[in-house]
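Q: Give me the 3D complex with zinc ion.
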Amino acid sequence: MRAMVLNEPKRPLEVRDVPKPKPGRGQLLVRVSTCAVCRTDLHVVDGELPDPKLPLIPGHQIVGQVEEIGEEMWEGPERPDGRGAPTFGIGDRVGIPWLGWTDGNCTYCRSGRENLCDNARFTGFTIDGGYAEFTVADARYCFHLPERYSDVEVAPLLCAGLIGYRSYRKTGDARRLGIYGFGNAAHLIAQIAIYEGRELFVFTRPGDKATQQAARELGAVWAGGSDEMPPEKLDAAIIFASVGPLVPAALHALAKGGVVVCGGIHMSDIPSFPYADLWEERVITSVANLTRRDGEEFFEIAPRVPIRTLTQTFPLEEANIALDRFRAGKLGGTAVLTIAK
Ligand SMILES: [Zn+2]
Ligand SMILES: [Zn+2]
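A: Here is the predicted complex, encoded as structure tokens.
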């Protein structure tokens, strides 16, 4: 099968003909239809995340059809939240996210925090992902996807949507919600926030009037540069940009008891800040990975909003072009690789 392969970090992906994978115990063989490109893919390709599998097929926002079902499908271990594993038949549409496998057995897994599993494996990072014609995935971590979305439309929901949603849920019932960095995840989560009646304050790169205008058109009550203070103190802020200095900036904009949620997997160093900005029970936290429950909740709410995705498609072989444009901030939407049949 054709695949885009990372041989070593900081090098372009290589188009290669590699053996089609075989589904092992509990796995689905999936014919990939689309795979959206995530900022994490950039971090992996650019060598900013330690110890990827090498060589690696990146990609963890995968949509495809079940082509083959492995033997001995899992019946357990029981999930801590009591829900069973999803079941799939040949030909079913399936979504494959970042969280690819957990041990089900560590302290974290047993307390409903499988996103923090000590032995977790991640799609397109420690196991091969979806920049290819086929992939295999543990069925327990796959999702059924809402019917209203096409394969291209739904792909960006699988990470930007899911992990964005987990970040959003960490803001509790914040009425005034700030979002720093208005990229893919922010664009999706802003739609839920507005749907749920939050007041949205969007912070962009200073001077980025076009993005600020887009945020206002989506329904933000205020949009400005990340160097500006909002007109009112915020109950919560989510930072989607991988820019450490945004942490003290967001903290400074919080009301008492507010929370700053760092939504990315990688961020530059955070500069020091006065303790007075943290005082009065303000909180800084981060979001790591996702749980299956996050995914199920998100795919339930997404079509009700309905969340709309902005996408720009590229053939599989142009993955390097998509990554370069992403790195340069020159995409008109989430890049989605389409795999010709
Ligand atoms: Zn675990
Ligand atoms: Zn991702």
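A quick observation: Residues 38, 40, 60, 98, 159 surround zinc ion (ligand 2) (CB under 6 Å).
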